[in-house]
Amino acid sequence: MSEALKGHVLVVDDDPALLKVLGALLTQAGLTPHPASNAKDALALLARRPIDVVLSDVRMPGMSGMELLAEVGRGWPDVPVLLMTAHGTVPLAVEAMKAGAADFVLKPFDREELLFSLKKALLHASQDPEPTRGTGKAPDGLDSLLMGQSRAMTEVKALLVKAAQGTATVLLRGESGTGKELAARALHENSPRRTGPFVKLHCAALPDTLLESELFGYEKGAFTGAATRKPGRVELAHGGTLFLDEIGDVSPAVQVKLLRVLQEREFERLGGTQTVKIDVRFIAATHQSLEDGVRRGTFREDLFYRLNVVPLWLPTLRERPEDIASLSRHFLDVHARTNGRPPFTLSEDGLRALQAQPWPGNVRQLQNFLERLVVLSDGPVLTGEDVARELSRQPGLAPPPVAAPLPPSPSDPVTLESRRKDVEKEALVDALKRSGDNRTLAARLLGVSRRTLYNKLEEHGLL
Predict the structure, then answer these.
(1) For the whole model, what pTM was predicted?
(2) Domain 142-315 in CATH: superfamily?
(3) pLDDT tens digits, 283-295
(4) Checking phi first, is residue 275 left (phi over 0); if not, alpha (psi -120 to 50) or beta?
(5) How far apart are CA 344 and CA 332, in angstroms?
């Protein structure tokens, strides 16, 4: 792999020799390895410092790699986990993907293939995620997956129940943060395919070359680093559901291959000649206007019609303000538990303050805001004053206090850029102070990924 990689990789294996080999390999590639000989030490290390990717063996004494995967998903949902195994099979891969693994690597591993998988994971980690933070695996049932009793949500749930019973392709549409991934999971969990795998792929997170291999898999020798045959997400979803998020970002070249899969239910792996037949239910999602893409020539019209068999629109939060009360109670309970805080309740004036906001980031933004309230408030009752205090610190929700204009000074000009940097640095320092210098928590408080936080800390000389 020619280009240098950057990032912190937590390597978990009970074999000291393998830890040493992996550490040298990752260091040579430009990565920073952090070794742990068991899952317990790995979790302790995750709590102390930010990690970009976890690379763990499956079979270890004590807590296994699959159990570690579940713990990482609960405590650090935006950290991708790669599993290593000497017993690589498609059923094991399906089980790992269903449990939330980003990828799996076969032992004995090939250097280029391992770095290839790490590169994909780092690309995913660099995206701002759309997590269901702290909730763990969503339980069955529409009401537990898609909360809200407003008329808009009631209509969506009724359509989901009807669509779930068939096999037609569903296109989920709506603004970012409206819960399209939860709707996709609700479709799967309420369908006859609920016992099969639910496999998801964020199409915007990968460039064409990686996206194609992720979708269709590859044969040994298909490209540098392809040391063994590897199934793609389409193959892993056989008998279940494949969720393609941000389908509007797929390039025309990949669109052609997706169209064939949707039409013929067959494909070839990269570098292969054998046609693979699949039984997969497709669900796609986008916040973009695919009709505009068709008019501009960036999205194939025939693919659009193949995807748009059953279109479902997810309402924005501003279209259903009456659901803010139930959503807030749910998120306050979840975040109090995950952050080790006592239960919180919301006063009437606090709820009115939340309902008065436009929430351009929809449910995701409300969820992150409430987690911030849980972490930073004394409790147990969150008042309108508490909400107003945190709103004033969050750009885009409440206007910041107007500062008195500084007198002009030719020797020290005040530019917009310099003022922006001052405010940004102040926000970083405040978040680090409030989180007790816990970088993961600081990133959550600021509403950014850990990678973005570290870039900003380095930019402002705070590392």
Answers:
(1) 0.63
(2) P-loop containing nucleotide triphosphate hydrolases (3.40.50.300)
(3) 999 999 999 999 9
(4) beta
(5) 6
